[in-house]
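Render this sequence as a predicted structure.
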Amino acid sequence: MVQGSGFDTVLQSARLSLDVGDVEQARALAHEVLAGAQARGDRLMQARALASLGDIERTVSRFRRAHDHAQRAAMLFKALDDVAGESAALATLAHCAASLGRNEEAVEAALLGVRLCELQPVGPQTVLAWNYLGIAQFWSRDFERAEHSFERAVRAAGESDPPLPPAQPRQNQAMSECVRAVCVRYETGALPDLGRLNAVVETCNALARSGRNGSIVIGGQVTGHAVLQFLSSLAACWNGDLAGAQARLAAALEWRDRYRATTWLHVVENWVRCEIGIALNDFAQAEQRATAMIELANRVDHEQLACLGHLILIGLHEAQGRMADAMAEMRRLRVREHKIRTENLASRARVVEWQLEVRSGERARRVLESASRRLERLSLEDTLTGLPNRRHFDRVLTDRLSDAGEPAHACCVALFDVDRFKQVNDRHSHLVGDQVLQRFAELLRRLAHADDFAARLAGDEFVLLLPATDEAEAVARCRQVADAFAATDWAAIRPGLAVTVSFGVARARPGEPPESVLHRSDTAMYAAKHHALMPSGLGAPVV
């Protein structure tokens, strides 16, 4: 059994083994360190070994196992007040959670990792933190925020001393564009403009030609080379260069096969072959490959690629006029989405149990208090829309109504609710429902004045605090929001989709508690919704 200072040397050997594709050797060495650290009671080295195992297992697409290792590592690092170790483990955790379809957990872990990196000098971990936040965001279908995060990762790579290769965030930027293209095709029936995808793929290939395509993550060399070829193959296929797509695919397989194990790269291979089949109008081949995507994704724990396979199959069935098959596939997708939510809840329950373990000892309790303060800051934002959440709004409203410097009744509270939102989810999937909520959040953010405060309360309910505003002005402004929302080009998201929103306004009364004014705006909103759904038209949304 390895002992003492030899731990670090063995973990470095594990990394080198993984970089050349020898997964079994890397796994054996990391387990050897973990056993030795446990025997010695060395919690720091246990955390490092668990973090290493997390990186190893996710490299070969054992995402559930990798998720558990990274989660335990993050908890240990947090208990030891090791900020650098915790941020690294959180990056791995975010990647694994995103691959498992646990989008909210992924974004939360990645955001916390980014914040922790702000306490350290800019370096490799800063690049990785922003990179994995981008991955969590694009799998959540928040492509614009993902683009921003990848650009932050590239900037951090250039600001590092010495500068680091930006290949990894650039490749994930290209992957984000590929996923976006499939989602747009599912929603509209046609691929979007490929300009941004072509540009970022060319940037990735230029980095490879200049020798600046090195990876800064454990085991990233083989995966990086394979991914670049797969993405280049997809871009070539969608641009009509099928010979180039086949050549790039062959090059990707040479790199992928170095792992000698089935990984998520096998799923991507079938994705590429499916797209080539679509380009050739060979629907039988395309359906076969999309089905293989789902089956292989099940084997390697990659829920996101499985969901992508379902979307492609739905589109293929619709393109051939097989609507019954399309509806059956959509039902399978909904079953998968429900399973993902159930697993996410179970994962959160395990976190609570591990947190209770960490509470043993006074120092661990102090660390947890510090971490809870960090999480408190993050807990004020809604992860889906980026707006402040209910907790944040309650604080702001309470402060506003108790402000001695200005009359409490000099503000209005407007509550918005998306009409028939359950039907949107049932008819068009939760993916489309999430996009509807994101569109409304963007609209609310754009039309709100500088002093306003917009938030998402829960589900399809949003709220807008309008200071120094009377009822008439508040209603007029809210109607502007509702009209703009109804005028959105919903067909661009999903043919046949049409969405409206109802609102209610209440003006604060002197001495009124926050829950009262919010209740009155809620009552007004439901009255307006009732009248809006009646043939006679809208009612007055004020109480």
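Summary. The mean pLDDT is 87. Residues 390-532 form a domain with the Alpha-Beta Plaits fold (CATH 3.30.70.270).
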